[in-house]
């Protein structure tokens, strides 16, 4: 079996696995980072979302070998203490119910805000499309994204 290196949350992780092993399983089973969840296995639900080069991707459908040495961010790497503005907003707005989809939702929201710090409801709906929440907390998710955007703007204003 081939060996390659994954760059997960800034840390190099050597992987010896089949070329076709999905990134999800390399993250969970080899790197031991279990915040990324298995949902559907066909890239339709978003539970397995991670950031690859800063962009949200479904880790269940990407062979890990294809993303060797590219920066991957999991929920564990977003912040060590839930201090990222999106994580803080998620807590403040009491978004999760069961919580299963939340790591994928949070990473998709963080990527959106990095590209668009002032999203409209439509921008949010488009960016979060396909990240399914069985509990239906979509309104809370949207509110939390607006809260995170406002907090980030306040932080920028205060630092001037």
How would you sum up this structure, described in words?
With about 160 residues, the protein is of the alpha+beta class. The chain has helices spanning about 25-30, 75-80, 85-90, 100-115, 120-130, 140-160, and strands spanning about 5-10, 10-15, 50, 55-60, 70-75. The chain folds into two domains: about 5-75, Beta-grasp domain (Ubiquitin-like (UB roll)); about 85-160, [2Fe-2S]-binding domain (DNA polymerase, domain 1), CATH 1.10.150. It has a five-stranded mixed beta sheet with strand order 2-1-5-3-4, sandwiched between helices. A hairpin with a 2-residue loop joins strand 1 and strand 2 (about 10-15).
Structural class: alpha+beta
Strand order of the largest sheet: 2-1-5-3-4
Proportion in helices: 25-40%
Mean pLDDT: 95
Secondary-structure element pattern, one letter each: EEHEEEHHHHH
- The total of beta strands comes to 5
The number of helical runs is 6
Major pleated sheet:
5 strands, mixed
List the uncertain runs: none
Q: State the fourth-level CATH superfamily of the largest domain.
A: Beta-grasp domain
Percent strand equals 5-15%
Instruction: Please name the CATH topology of the largest domain.
Output: Ubiquitin-like (UB roll)
**What form results from the Cα inertia axes?**
globular
Span between N and C termini? Answer: 53 Å
What CATH architecture of the largest domain would you give? Roll
Q: Work out the radius of gyration.
A: 16 Å
CATH class category name of the largest domain: Alpha Beta
What number of domains? 2
